[in-house]
Design a protein that fits this description.
three-stranded antiparallel β-sheet, four-stranded antiparallel β-sheet, 14 helices, globular, protein methyltransferase activity, zinc-finger, SET_dom, alpha+beta
Amino acid sequence: MDGDLRYGICPVCGKNATLKCGSCRREFYCDKSHQSQDWPRHRSTCNGWEIDRDPVLGRHLLATRDLAPGDVILTETPLVWGPSIHDANQRVCVGCGERCDDVDARCSGCCWPVCRLDCEGLSDKKRHQLECVLLARVRIVPRCEVLLIIRLLILWRMKSRRWTSLANLQNHVESRGPGTEAHDEVLKGSVAIYEHASLLEHSCIANTRHSFRIDDKGRPRITIYAVTSIKKGEHLSTMYTHALWSTRARREHLLTTKYFACRCKRCADPTELGTHLGTLNCPCKNGLILPNDPLNPNTNWSCDTCPGTITSAEIAELTHRLEEEVVEVMKQATEYTLSELLSRLTVLLHPGHQHCISVSHSLIQLLPATDPRKSELCKRIMDTVSRLDPYGTRLTLYTAVTLRELAMCPGEDKRVHLAKAVLLLKAEPPNSPGERLRRLIEVEL
């Protein structure tokens, strides 16, 4: 990808260059003077995006030029970042946010945990060195979950430009609080707030992907890439919810945590692009039960063959009950329990329903290669994934696992499937589950 290149040709003198444009990260220069000299030309192509405003969408990003798959759209470090609430035994580096394995490594100034004594983030004068003095002076007991709050207060006290940018972001604070899904969602993981990347709008079939890398100052840099051809003026989008949830589940999640209802092409299609992720089987044995109006949460559901109908409330009750059953079986899943559960689910649900796909994905990892169901289930999952994640951005690990299981089946081209899996996982972060799976598959190739 363009954003990963380490050197290029200076457009001013034609020599090899390593100084990368900090905005687009696609152009290289010999030095700052050549970069300044080239700015009148480069300005029009530097950023591939601009901020637009809409009464419904609010602020969002538009492409300012035609973008090809793999193009870097933007890259930036966060306005502020920090760990969220972690397990009591979890130690996070105060410099870069990485997990700390060395229990004795601590910052020499404030005595907070660090991943290593020479962590790049510890020397950042605009970040940890500011908070380090405060942490040392007041002797706050190291608690990872308060670090983000401290950093926000420092920005506010300094009247920083970053604080002004943060204050301009939408927060929906009046709607969030204990008991809401939004409150529960923020209890996990780490938090980083990006000034421009946060303006990507939602789409259930997004046209961008993003990656994170720790930069030379210990900051989590986000890079946004195009995953398909994007025309000048088109909206830039990402996905805020789960790709393998049905429309009803996705829209409910978005409404309760992001405060909007998606109306994209996938949400408007009763069959969800032919995947039937939310479709039920009709008792008439010949038809499928689909929503009359997928964009109306209270719509009735009807059979496409007979006059039978069912209310939205009944659909919600049934799917919730089945979800509880799936969760319970998954706690101690075996080949037998998953097979038996899938058989019962497919009486009521379309084989492509989200619950059936979820159970199938676990089952294929337990079935022997000689079982004909393994190949059949793998191919069904791959068909679903190819429709919902056509650019291989949201379900890479999920898809790679499926391809690896399919490669084991008799009559399948093992090398082709494994090569596809490796290609999907090539951008996975170091030491991530995806990167570890990629290394395993490369050995199997």
